[in-house]
Structures are given as C-alpha cells and as structure tokens.
Amino acid sequence: APSVRLSPAARSLFDEPLAITVQGLSPRQQVTLRTSLQDETGELFQACARYQAGDNGEVDLARCPALPGGSFSGVEPMGLLWALQPQKPFRRLVKRDVQSPFQLQLEVFEGHGEPPGRLLAQAQHERAFLRDGVRRVPVREGRIRATLFLPPGNGPFPGVIDLYGTGGGLPEYRACLLASHGFGVLALAFYGYEDLPKDMKEFHLEYFEEAVNYMLQHTQVKGPGIGLLGISKGGDLCISMASFLKGIAATALINGSVANVGAVLRYKDITIPPLGADAKRIKVNESGIADIVDVLNNPLEGPDCQSFIPLENAESRFLFIVGQDDRNWKSEFFAVEGSKRLQAHGKEKPEIVCYPGAGHYIEPPFFPMCAASMHLLVGRPVVWGGEPKAHCEAQVDAWQQIQAFFRKHLMGKPQGAPNKL
Length: 421
Description:
Layout lengths: L2 E5 L3 E3 L5 E5 L6 E9 L5 E9 L6 E2 L18 H4 L2 E2 L15 E9 L8 E10 L6 E5 L6 E5 L6 E7 L9 H7 L4 E5 L13 E3 H13 L3 E11 L1 H12 L3 E7 L9 E4 L2 E3 L10 E2 L5 E2 L25 E7 L7 H14 L6 E5 L16 E4 L4 E4 L4 H24 L10
Parallel strand pairs: 2-9, 12-13, 12-15, 14-17, 15-16, 16-21, 21-22
Antiparallel strand pairs: 1-3, 3-6, 4-5, 4-8, 5-7, 8-9, 10-11, 11-13, 17-18, 19-20, 23-24
C-alpha cells in the first residue's frame, strides 16, 4: 500500500527543511499531494501539487518535478509548505502560541482530477517553534512587556532584541526560532499589548532603553553589546535605538525605513516627527486592494528631512535585508540612502542584501508568502508584493545572513563559522 515517508519523521522545527517521499505507488502512477494546516483562529491554509511516480513507484519531492496544474511546478522539495495559501482571502499565516506546534496534514490522492480522486495515503507532522531545551521566560520588569528566549546549554549567549511592525502585540515566533540557533532573544512588545499604549501616536525611546539595559545586565547575555532585529516599523525603531542608545553592536533590518514613520518619536529633549504621507497617492485596484508604495514623502526633501533618523550617530554595524518587490514602501531606496549617510559621516558601509521577487514580509524560512492582507493603519487590504518561489528562497537566505551577521558582530566569529550549541 502507498505510504508517506517524512524526515524528520514526526516533528521538525518550522525553519528546518522537511523531506517528503511517497512510496508503494505503481510505476508512473499519477497522484496529487495536498498539505493542510490550520492556524489558531481556525483559518485553513492549503497547497497541492501533481506528480507522476518514477519506475520504482516512488515520488521523492527532492528529485521529482511537480507537473503543471497545482500550487507550483518543478522540483520544489519544500513547495508543499511555502505554497500554502489561505482558503479565505487576506489572511496571513502567523504563529500566536509558540508553545504548541502547527499540525501539518499531508494527503496523497489518486490521479490529477478536480476534485481529487481516492485517498491513497496520509500522514501528520508537527512543525514546532520551541526547540527542546529552549527556555521561554515572560518578562514584566519596570515597563518592559516582553518574552525572553534562551537557548539550551550554559550561557552567556549573544543577545538580540526582536521587534515586529504596525501589527502590535507580542509576536514571539521569530525570536524563539532564532534562540534555537544559539542566541538569547528578547521579543519586545511596544504597543497594542497589555498596559502598553493602544495606538501608534508616539513612542518614547526610554522604554526601549529599559529593554536594552535589561539585556546588557542579564547574566545569560554575553556583552559587551547586543543586536537588534526589526521588520517594517520595527526596523526604523531599531535604527532609532542604535542611533541614540548605548550598547548596540549590530542592527539588522528587514524592509525597514531610515526615516521615522507613523508616530512621533521622543527621547529626552529630542523629538523626531513622523515622515509625511499623502493618502491621495494610494492606488486601489478592481478587487479593492490598495497599493501604498508611493504614499510616504521623500525624507530627503523639505521639512521631511527632520524625519530622517541620525543613524550616523550609531556605534552599531548595520545589515539591510531588502525585498526588491516590497509594495509597503521603498525599502531599497531607504537602504541606499542610509548607506550614503553612514559613509558621508565616515562610518563603515552597511551590508545590503537585495532579493529580487521578494515582498515586504520576509519571515523565517518556509512561511508562505502573504500577497495581501489587512493593514491596521490603512484600514483596508494592501498588497505586500513578492513572487512566492523567489520570496521563499529569499526567506531561507536572509535567515542565514541575519545569523551570520549577528555571529560576526556579537561573538567575533567569522561568517559561516559553525554554530556550536
């Protein structure tokens, strides 16, 4: 009888590859493979692919090309994961509770029909976020609202503060995956969580300074400096932290802005206004989805220059991860202008890694690309950009680039050095 063989067999970390093979088919038999995954709100994500078994009656996704007509085609060992799509529009796959794994369901059907033919085999697999031995420590010290993830083993570990964007709350999934690679990571909430501000009107860097000092003083965090990792709005907050606060050695930005965006930023007697925007520049397509890439003003012109964050004051090294099809804002332009500004002030040139075909939400590996979803500040679905296969490949590479960058500047290890846990 046909059967599904998975490696690892029962459980893997979400950012690890999963090998999928179907055995026991007839030679050259046509089958459809389907994956299903439900998020914590009950939203269903699915992907399917059509295959023809080899002469040995086997379909090995690492060698067998998917045929046209499914969610992807060609040899794509991880296609059944990165091609997962929501069954309702404008839903993005996120992990809310990192202590429970996602349950992945894999089914093998006869033929290439619509609807699929007879069920031939099935398997379940857990995609986990919390590696065995990683400690999850809720942090409520002073004003800090955060969760600290510490790797297995005896520290101290290189420390990183992880910030997400305008969605608010306290996303932990990237921080806990990064902790499984040997970093002590503080997932930090900054609004829309517990007793923190409910909206994005203004932010005070003193709050973020508390978090930096918490990490610098932690016995499990290796000094003398820590790293910052931010995506989207979290990116410009990280640049602001690096520009004004002490103790930051490495700052990695995923599609971040070099101008302060969306809220007033205050630190002591300094105020940085948000970059101006013009809602008339929003383009809405027939489906009601907005393209907001041209909404923000240019931070090099007129009064908007005051929103440019003085990153030349930073002691930190910088890494810019750029999706060249980012439709949220002009990430590549921001990275290039940040680089010019640093070099004009005699600072080291930042690393800029550009990914053609990648959109705004560059997540850890194997998260499916979200093409469009609701934007809290715009109040309607917006397009995020990206082409699924290129976007997925970018996520795999960016994850390695970020870890190598932090190892180099927080541990003094050469890039590509093996990570000893």
